Amino acid sequence: MGVNLTCPQCDGRMTVQFSPDMRVFCEHCGYERDTGLDEKSAEVQAQGPRPSVSITHVGEVNRRAQDLFYTGHHYLFEGDEEQALQAFERALELQDDFVDPHLWIAKTTADEAVKRDHLDTILAHHPGHMEAMRMLMVLQGRLTPEEAARTYHFNDPQMLQAEGPVAMTTTTLRCPTCGGDLTVNEEAGTVDCQFCGYSAAQPRGNVGGGDLLVAALLERKAQAVKWVIGERLLHCNNCAAERTIAGDKLSARCPFCGSNHVIVQDALGSFEQPAGILPFSVNRDGAGAAIKQELKGFGERLKGLFSKNKVVRAYLEGFYLPFWVFDAIIQGTRTRIDNSPEYDRYRNYERVAAAYQQTRFNDALYDIEVCAVESPPKHLTAQLGDYELGGLAAYEPALLAKYPAGLYTMDFDKAALEARSIASVVMRGRHTRREMSDDSDVTISVFSNIQSMSFRLLLLPVWVGTLVEEDGDIRTALVNGQSGKVVLGKAQKQG
Asked: For residue 180, which of 123, 175, 362, 416 is within the disulfide window of CB 3.0 to 4.6 Å?
C-alpha cells in the first residue's frame, strides 16, 4: 500500500522532504503532517547512514547468533547500550566462541571486570587477536590510550642513531663485607669474595613463561622512536673513571680499578633485561679438553696433510651469549598425494579422492633458541645444539660476577621470523616422518600456521676460543657451556 500524499485541507499533492529533517507538507495551503518521528528517532536519522559492521570470527557462525549480533549494533546505532549488551549476551548464549560479541561487549560496557573477562575469553580462543590484546594492554596500564591509537597505523617506529656515547646506570659487583671482587662458584652454587671469604647462595627465582609476541609487537609499534646505540658511557661507581664501551656489552670491567659493572639501563631505555640465566656446567679445563679432542678428529687430521693447521696458541674465555627463546602454538595441514599411475585423476572422481588426502593437526614447539648477536657468527652459534633449560635461574646481575655477558644486537621481532622458519622446518620433518610407506610415488607436504608465540631473553653459557695455527691463521672455537659440544670455525688469514 502506498503512502497517501493528498492534502486533507485542499486536496493538493503534498511534498516529502528527507533532509535535514523528514517533513511532509503541502506547498499550496501550508498544511504540514505530523510524521510520527519522536525526538530520538529524528536524532538517529540525523546521524547519517548506518555504519557497516563486518564479522571477524574465523569459522562457522550460528545464524541466530549472527542476527542477534547485528541487532546489538542496531541498538548501538540508536544509542541504547543496555539493549545492545543484552543482544550480544544472547548471541553468546547460542555460540560462546563467537568472537565478535565478546569484543563489542568489551567495547560497550563500562565495567572493567566485564571487559577483562570477555577480552580474556577472546584471547583464549584466538591468542593472536590484535584488537583484543590492544584493549587488554590499555586496561593493564601497559599502553596508554594514546599509545594504543598509534598502533593502528602502518608505520614502524622511527629508527634513530644515537649521536654519541649514551649514559647508563650500572650496578657494581662488590663484596658487601670488604668491597672486594666477587666471583661465582658453580659447583657450590654460591657467590664468593676472593679476599675476605664472604659467601652467599646464588640468587634463585622463577624465570616465568615469557611475554606474548603480539603484545610485545604492539608495545614496540606504540613507540615513536627506536634507538640504535653504538657506544655507552661507563661511569665507574668505584673510582669515578669514565670510558666508553661497545653497545653490545651487558657487563664490563673498569680498566683502572678492576671493578665489575653490569648495565641496568641506559638513558634512552634502548634495551630490556634478560629474564633468566643458565649456569656453566663445563669448566675451563673441560672446554679445553673438548676442543683438543675435536682437533684430533679425522677431518682435522686430513686438513693437516695439506696445510699447517697445528694449533700453537689458544685463548679461551667463558661468556654468556644472549638468546631469544620462543614457544609456539601451531595449527597445520598435512597433504598426502599418491602419484601412482593407477590413479587416473582425469577420469575417475573416486580415484582422485583416494589419491588426495588432507588432514589438520595441532602441535606445539618449545624452547626454539635464536642467538641474538652477530658475533660469534650465527652459522657457528646455530651448531651449538639445544640447551636443557631445566636449570634456569632468574636473572640477577650478581650471577655475572665470574663471566661477562653480551647484550643482544638482534631484536625480538627479527628473531621471531627466524624462529618461525625453524618451527616450519621442524613441523615438516615431524609430520612427514609419520608416513610409513617408502613409496617414491607418494608426495607429502606440510603447511604450518603459527597461532601464537611467547618469548624470553636468556643468557646461555658458551666458551669462546681463539686458536692460532702454526701458519698464523686464526680459528674460532665455540663450546656449549652446558653440554660440551664443540663447534670449529674455518681458519682465517690475519689481516
From this structure: 175
Class for the domain spanning 63-150:
mainly alpha
Cis before 20 (ω within 30):
yes
Spatial CA neighbour of 472 closest among 492, 458, 446, 490: 492
Could you read off the pLDDT of 32-59 as tens digits, one per residue? 876 555 554 555 455 555 667 888 888 8
For residues 458 and 321, is the Cβ–Cβ distance under 8 A?
no
Q: Would you state the cell numbers that stand for residue 28, as one nine-digit string?
A: 499550496
Asked if 409 and 360 touch (Cβ cutoff 8 Å), the reply is no
Whether 489 contacts 476, CB under 8 Å = yes
Helix (H) or strand (E) holding 98: none
pTM above 0.85, yes or no: no
Question: One-letter amino acid identity for 114?
Answer: V
**How far is the C-alpha of 372 from the C-alpha of 374, rounded, in Å?**
7
Nearest to 473 by CA among 310, 251, 315: 310
Grid cell of 228 as nine digits: 640504535
Residues of the chain with pLDDT under 50: 1-2, 19-20, 40, 44, 298, 302, 305-306, 345
Listed by start position, the domains of the chain span 1-39, 63-150, 159-274
Cα Dmax for the chain: 119
